[in-house]
Design goal:
With about 280 residues, the protein is an all-alpha fold. About 65% of the residues lie in helices and about 0% in strands. It is found in: Membrane.
């Protein structure tokens, strides 16, 4: 016996999808909303916690392997453990703050989302300020609690490793940030959520894992930043000339990688340029 199907009945096999409108360019009206300031606080605290836990991990590892003080070069958490600390904290903090601020915790991510018209200019600028202040405070707590070890083991500051030139360091930061921001765009794409509604996707998981794998690849080169706030906070508190020598790499690289990722996702994968051209042609006719 066959089941009668009404051909006019709507198909609910997938969610209806419509591209959300782009965020306003400036968004001054956000300044009058408490939800906006709550988001700034969330970004500040999340970046503070991120820097505190990760820099403490780096300092602790350097102390554990310090042979001059009886350390074991094969001891400690190792580079794998450091990568887990960074990736794991991003997973936890994005999960906790995504519903409040979007869980950026990184000026490069915010910059990429600004270029993709996901956030306004006002929100992007104030997010970056909150993230940098949170990073400074987070590293400040590390120094306050572990002052001797902090000063002895480089303060967790990002520096170009010996044997690598500036071009290699810049390239590592560009590609690493591209991977991260591309993952952010893909994991939070509303079209994917609608199309794959039957597949439960936890967006913070691939974002945290992207940080994890990038750190494994680039930590020998630059110590892995892919986050200007992370490098800025460590450089400000450590305040050593060597930490500032190549500091520009940890801003130019991540911002460039984020811009390329935003362009690639919006104009290549999502074909925004073709849609805009098609709309222009239809209006001309």
């Amino acid at each position: 016996m066959t089941k009668n199907v009404d051909p006019a009945a709507p198909d609910f096999s997938a969610k209806d999808y419509h591209d959300p409108p782009p965020a306003p360019l400036f968004g001054f009206d956000e300044l009058s909303k408490w939800s906006f300031y709550r988001a700034l606080i969330a970004e500040f605290i999340a970046t503070l916690l991120f820097l505190y836990v990760t820099i403490m991990t780096v300092i602790g590892y350097n102390h554990q392997i310090d042979a001059e003080h009886g350390g074991d070069e094969c001891g400690g958490v190792g580079i794998l453990g450091i990568a887990w600390a960074f990736g794991g904290m991003i997973f936890v903090l994005v999960y906790c703050t995504a519903g409040i601020s979007g869980g950026h915790i990184n000026p490069a991510v915010t910059f990429g989302l600004l270029l993709g018209r996901k956030v306004s200019l006002i929100r992007a600028v104030l997010y970056m300020i909150a993230q940098c202040l949170g990073a400074v405070c987070g590293v400040g707590f590390v120094k306050a609690f572990q002052k001797t070890y902090y000063n002895s083991y480089g303060g967790g500051a990002n520096m170009l490793s010996a044997g690598y030139n500036k071009g290699v360091g810049l390239g590592a930061e560009i590609i690493g940030t591209f991977v991260l921001v591309y993952t952010v765009f893909s994991a939070t794409d509303p079209k994917r959520s609608a199309r794959d509604s039957h597949v439960p996707v936890l967006a913070p998981l691939p974002i945290g894992f992207a940080v994890f794998v990038v750190i494994l690849a680039t930590i020998p080169i630059t110590g892995t930043s892919i986050n200007p706030a992370r490098s800025f906070g460590a450089a400000v508190i450590y305040n050593n000339e060597k930490a500032w020598d190549d500091h520009w790499i940890f801003w130019v690289g991540p911002f460039t990688g984020a811009a390329i990722a935003a362009f690639y996702h919006q104009y290549i994968l999502r074909a925004a340029a073709i849609k805009a051209l098609g709309s222009f042609r239809s209006n001309v006719r």
